[in-house]
Specification:
alpha+beta; three-stranded mixed sheet
Length: 176
């Protein structure tokens, strides 16, 4: 049998309704429903994106705090060694073979200080400053003619901060 050519039928157009409104009503409702659903999806996506951004910021902040806390605990253990170096440098010999040896120890001391500074460790300035319980720990309160009341007379043990966090408060004598 010979094949007969297939002809496409012309699309049948629905006869126009008498007033034209019912034919547009159904697609218009579908369009509005699709727009509402798209708006709902967009809103959900934006909320999920904002939640993820907040989560990411919170995790980064927690990680930074954890690192700073751990670093602070480790560095605090070395501060006693730094105190010993401070005391040794005050009584450093200036003559003879001991002076050469002391110069080597002084180089080690400066290197140790620079390592701590590179990690963000800073000394708490206390001498002559107003007493701040966040930064200082008062050992004694004494009468002083040279210092105003509530000011630090002397530092007994140096205090240190890591960034904005106090890892060891300064032990001080405070004027009454």
């Amino acid at each position: 049998m010979p094949e007969q050519p297939v002809t496409e039928a012309a699309p049948e157009s629905a006869p126009p309704p008498p007033d034209g409104a019912p034919a547009l009503e159904a697609p218009q409702k579908e369009l509005e429903a699709a727009r509402a659903q798209a708006a709902e999806y967009l809103d959900g996506w934006q909320r999920a994106r904002a939640d993820f951004a907040n989560y990411k910021k919170r995790v980064e902040k927690e990680q930074a705090e954890t690192y700073q806390h751990a670093a602070g605990r480790i560095i605090a253990r070395y501060l006693d060694v730094l105190d010993d170096f401070d005391r040794a440098m005050k009584d450093q010999p200036t003559e003879g073979e001991a002076a050469k040896w002391a110069e080597g120890v002084s180089l080690i001391y400066r290197k140790f200080q620079s390592i701590l500074e590179a990690e963000g460790v800073t000394r708490i300035e206390a001498e002559g400053q107003a007493f701040d319980p966040q930064l200082h720990e008062a050992v004694t309160h004494e009468d002083s003619d040279d210092h105003a009341s509530g000011h630090v007379i002397a530092v007994l043990r140096q205090g240190y901060k890591l960034g904005d966090r106090v890892i060891r408060p300064a032990l001080v004598r405070v004027a009454k």
